[in-house]
Design brief:
The chain is mainly alpha-helical. It contains seven helices and two strands, in the order ααββααααα. The protein has a two-stranded antiparallel sheet with strand order 1-2. A hairpin with a 5-residue loop joins strand 1 and strand 2. Helix 2 packs parallel to helix 5, helix 4 runs parallel beside helix 7 and helix 5 packs across helix 7.
Length: 144
């Protein structure tokens, strides 16, 4: 399955977007007030009414689960990725998302996945694993 997933352009584009969807950083202004700072280039999710979702529906837990799965998938297929047949607009966001998660200092990046007492796996560690697998392949050392 790794080979099939790593060569599917639509899947790779979807995964790269899920990795950075609604990943928000907070600037510390003072202890009582913080202002969210979204990553540049992100498109806001449409309003619930446009999507036809109930007023009380919250996508937060779903998004966290999708992001965790996306991080694990990228870590697993990184050794099989072959960008030679793809345009830079496809693999550029994926490489940027991987690098962002490695250097990100937000609690979402450095805290272990729940349940935290069972594992020390963090998004940073998964993306570091993915980047190391990607950098072993000769054509990608120049990209990274």
């Amino acid at each position: 399955n790794d080979m099939i997933l790593s060569h599917h352009p639509g899947f790779l584009l979807m995964i790269s977007q899920l990795l950075s969807l609604h990943h928000i950083h907070y600037r510390e202004l003072d202890s009582t007030d913080s202002e969210p700072v979204g990553r540049q280039g992100k498109r806001p999710i449409r309003e619930r009414q446009i999507l036809g979702l109930p007023e009380d529906w919250c996508f937060g837990h779903t998004l966290v689960d999708l992001r965790e799965s996306s991080l694990c998938i990228i870590a697993n297929i990184a050794g099989q990725l072959n960008f030679s047949n793809f345009n830079r607009t496809l693999y550029g966001p994926l490489v940027r998302a991987v690098i962002h998660w490695i250097v990100c200092s937000s609690s979402e990046a450095v805290d272990p996945f729940p349940p935290a007492y069972l594992s020390a796996v963090t998004p940073q560690r998964l993306m570091l694993e993915a980047l190391s697998k990607m950098s072993i392949l000769p054509p990608y050392s120049a990209l990274i």
